[in-house]
Amino acid sequence: MRLLPSSFAPGSAGRLRLSSALLGGLVLLLGRTPAAGRAAAAFRELAPLLEEHCVECHEGSKAKGGLELARLAQDLEDRGLRERWVRVHDRIQKGEMPPPKKGELSNGERARMVGILGGALQEADRREVERLGRGPLRRLNREEYENNLRQLLHLPNLEIRGMLPEDREGHHFNKASETLDLSREQLTAYLDAAEVALRAARVTDPQPRKPDAYRAVGTDLFPRLGTFGNRQAMFFAKGDHAADLEAKPSKEEELRRAADEELELALFRSASWPYFGYPKRFVAKVGGEYRVRFWARSVRQVDGFRLVPAEAPQPMTFRARKPSGPCIAGDPRATGGILDIAPEGALYETTVLLREGETFEYSLLGLPIPLAFNVQGGPPIYRFPPFPEGGQPGVAFRSLEVEGPLVPAEWPPASHRVLFDSLPVGAVPADAKSEAIRLLRRFASLAVREPFPEADLAIFERLILGRLEKGESFESALLAGYQAVLCSGPFLTLREPEKEGDHFAVASRLSHFLTNRGPDDALSVRAGEGLLRERRVLRAESERLIAGEGFERFIHNFTDYWLNLRHLRRDDPDVRLFPEYRFDDYLVESLERETRAFVAAMIRENLPATVLVDADFAYANDRLARHYGLEPLTGSNLRKVSLPEGSPYGGLLTQGAILKVTANGTTTSPVVRGAWVMERLLGEPPPPPPPSVPAVEPDIRGAKTIRDLLALHTRDESCASCHARFDPVGLALESFDVLGGWRENYRSLGEGAQVKGIDRAGHEYAYTVAARVEPNGKLLDGTAFSNIRDLKKVLASRPRQLGRNLLHQFTIYATGTPVRFSDRPEIEAILDACEPAGYRVRDLLLGLIESRIFLGNAGCH
Amino acid sequence: MRNTTPIPSVSRMDRRHFLRGAGVLLALPWLESLQPVFARKAEPENPRRMLLISNNLGVLPKRFFPTGEGRDYELSPYLRELEAFREDFTVFSGLSHPGVTGGHSTENCFLTAAKGPARSGFRNQISLDQFAADQMGQVTRFSTLNLGVNLDRANRSLSWTRDGALLPAENSALAVFRRMFVQGTPQEVARQLHRLEERGSVLDALLEQTRSVTRSLGADDRSRMEQYLTSMREVEERLHAAREWEARPRPQAPEKEPRDLQEKRFFLEKFELMLAMARLAFESDSTRIVTLMVDGLDTGVFQLHENQNTTEAYHGLSHHGQAEAKVRQLEETDLQQMRLLRGLLGSLAETPEQGRRLLDHTMVLYGSNLGDANTHDNSNLPILLAGGGFRHGSHLVFPREANAPLSNLFVSMLQRFGVEAERFGSSTGRLRGLDPLPGA
Lengths: 861, 440
Known about the structure:
- The structure holds two protein chains of two kinds.
- Chain A is an alpha+beta fold.
- Chain A contains 28 helices and 22 strands.
- In chain A, strands 2, 3, 4, 5, 6, 7, 10 and 14 form an eight-stranded antiparallel sheet that branches. Chain A has a three-stranded antiparallel sheet with strand order 9-8-11, with no helix packed on it. In chain A, strands 18-20-19 form a three-stranded antiparallel sheet, with no helix packed on it.
- The model of chain A is unreliable at about 1-20 and about 25-30 (pLDDT under 50).
- In chain B, the strands form four sheets. Chain B has a seven-stranded mixed sheet with strand order 4-5-1-10-11-2-12, with helices on both faces. Chain B has a two-stranded parallel ribbon with strand order 3-13. Chain B has a two-stranded antiparallel sheet with strand order 6-7.
- The longest helix of chain B is centred in the middle third of the chain and has 29 residues, at about 185-215.
- The radius of gyration of chain B is 22 Å and the shape is globular.
- Mean pLDDT of chain B is about 85; it is low at about 1-45.
């Protein structure tokens, strides 16, 4: 660090000049308002302290971090300036400023500075909240919009989010008011989406379409007699042996086989490309839900293409796709849920969701993918990997029935009646005008989450009547009015709860928080009764929503953003280094479910906040048990298991999903992982980049290991001071590879001791065992740890910090506005209340819901 | 579950075939036949166009910036790739946006010059393309086209509205192509016209209703609703133009559709395809303004040559720390991008328009919000302007320590575009030393 010239030493003339500058700013503010007067008085008290301890480094054109204290205006009414003073306050409060080695600031002085500045900031921020509310209203994001339309129109499978531009992130979430703005492109897209949704809701046929029925047995169960990967991958069996089927059968023979109830389709591979494994000749003529019933048993294939009973159930699902052969048009989507096929043959039933023109294929989870070799430009040859001991697991199918699209219980369906009430399909009422007005009012009251002002309704009425006068059809005029309702402010935006009597905004906020859509009927009734500010009622409603099915939507969206799970599949593991993960979709999917289940349990089971970093249990299934080195489990469903003594797993911090989203598939970086964990789990984001860029160019030439690299990178002090905040945590996480597998050594493709084998896709591999992982480090506060287990204990000893972070994440997610300075006492009060029970997660969440941060100034009673 | 289908390697033949075919076929009689539907101002004799490109990871500065000054400068390693067009471009050093600092966060400000993007409560402002389009009125089917390469469309864009809302860009060349060239049947056109008419009345109702709500709101909420109102007015305004354009047939597609490359690792191929789309947009006069954001941050490991991938993601490479292996790959990436640019300039130069070259009527700006990605430096941005009827062939040098505002260049460009703007962003005037070519 460059030292300031001695002429700027304390007490010199330079300081005096600054002193008057610091005071000069105040004079301007004096006499404006009593509040500004108080702020000015605070700064007057603060000036000598800043003068003595801070300005030495923070003055002139070379001011550290670009912060010139004397030029930083003291107008706390101004948001931007207040923000900067908050940073000054925080760094002094945390003891980061003045830098410890200057060591001049006594604890008493520090407390005084923090007290004075904090008091002034608190008052200014509080006043703004009282005047304007905590944050601005915001647009529904595209997922919320889709969910609201699904709910309103009774169309649980409506898909319109793809029509809407992806939402910008703010504070990592898709819920921040600041970034949920509304451009003309968005408005156009919302208009389009509303139009599509309304058309999907109405029916034109007076009778429901009769469902198609389809049944396949024998060779109709599969498109061909074989698949990629030769007979090891699939064959038709009879009496537990591969059936000897003529490749070019006679017409009669072909018909006989396609009706042979005793022929079994035995399948042993995953559904990854190249593969097409759908039943013959089935295509959905109309999009919708289809019921699928099939007979199956899990089997093992032993040498000679023979079947023996399996020892464990085999998980499978279906994938909806176009019947386009090995080339895949569009994205195949898993549908129908995961079914564990037991060794005893049984009938299974599920419902798959298909779009028009789609079929669906068998997708066995966690099985090998034979891959092609082109030998000297010839046709591909497929190699199936060696069977595991005891044989290759798979599933044998005997029959499959499909029926659909399933018809709703009533006709016209509920979605149609939302639009037209009991009007017969296609009918035009005798008095079109008054009926249109009645239906509009009915629709608007169902759609918006609070009563619509009369004057606004009149505007939409005029729209419909105008369309009718122009000669539009009854339906088209009415839908134009509905479209306007669905794009109007009351439907499209969420606002802050206002005064005492405002219960509708509370209901909306609560339901969008916990179910990612509008209030359900019960909650709306409570809002209508004006009971949502009763603590008892509010708590009961919150707990009801948490226990309900809709809470899954919260878990999904919250973890998608908070933990980045939506990017879980972004980088495929480098198969040269990690052959064991080649095309292991089942592992990735299990990791995803694990983390979502864990977060759900944190809230529903009210676990202590420390489970963010450490726990003595995990959620695991067959695949995860292997991944985490646990006792073997069978079946795909997750269950809670205790971890063996000394296991490095347990807690969000070391879950595979977290370790995957913080790696790039090939390498791990302590910097990236460390910064991510500090920010998302511990609530200590890396400081924003200083406005003045230091002219330091990191030079990492000659670095051999990641540690060397960091050492070189952080040789410069301005780099080091920041990296010390997050690198250490990342170093401990180096013990985990790109998918969270435990490792003692890195792997490379360079020279050295090789590990060779054949991977799960039949490919030969060879990687090199490289340097040992060195997982030890020292946190910013000096606490040393030797490995991840150690680090977990250190972090778990900070439950209040972990709880505070959760409250911060919940706050931005639920309210769209991050924790403000004036919210801080409220946050600490919630933490105080949750302390005796050990900062449990549902307690924290409910505490937030019952606070003024969530409910607005009126709070609850 | 996701499909992990490895797409068989892109057939370069296919793509080449498409690109070449497109260039040859377009002798463009339609360019001259299309007249504006309505314009806020009289059309200048020669239509002016601009293509605004930014790569948010920039280039290696030492290999980009030339030595020497003025017309006698010596080409840098990168600029040597453009040697054939030396008289058709100007390279600048010492330009940046004052107050636009904060590492990568400045990427959304490249065309807006809005200060302090890293600060909380930051609000962006109107971008150069939108400003120009607003001034010009809608004289073409699309007032602008926003294109992206591997772009994180939700969070990044070069194009921003007056009140700071992001205008998303299109990553799919195929989608752009279809918007420009695929003509509906007469029934579809009629249905679309009816839809637009209906939308007009829905918007009228929404405007009226929103105005009535807005009156009762607090300041913050009101500004949000103002944005909503603005959007409605803008959509409505564009409806008029959309109706007129819908009634006119789209230009004939020059050739078959481009292949839809989705995989991000075909980064350079996608960039090339998008440049081709920009050129087609100009040649068919579908628009006069195109932005193209090349998103290196969202580009993982990518294919540098056939059968050769980079060893790590583009972002990782950009923080090279002088490590030789990384610098080498970055250099190759930069060079390939310069070659793509050369290809674009070449085809614009080969296309005649009103007795001159299309290039003479098309300003091509290539630059970045980062002066040096390795250090997140936002000063001394690499900036190059080609074509568009300027007196080119020079290296214009501004002080390294006290950069000239990049917005000054934008003002010069706006004026050349035919917009009588005196100011834009943080400009202090036109850019000294860059003069329009008389008669061009």
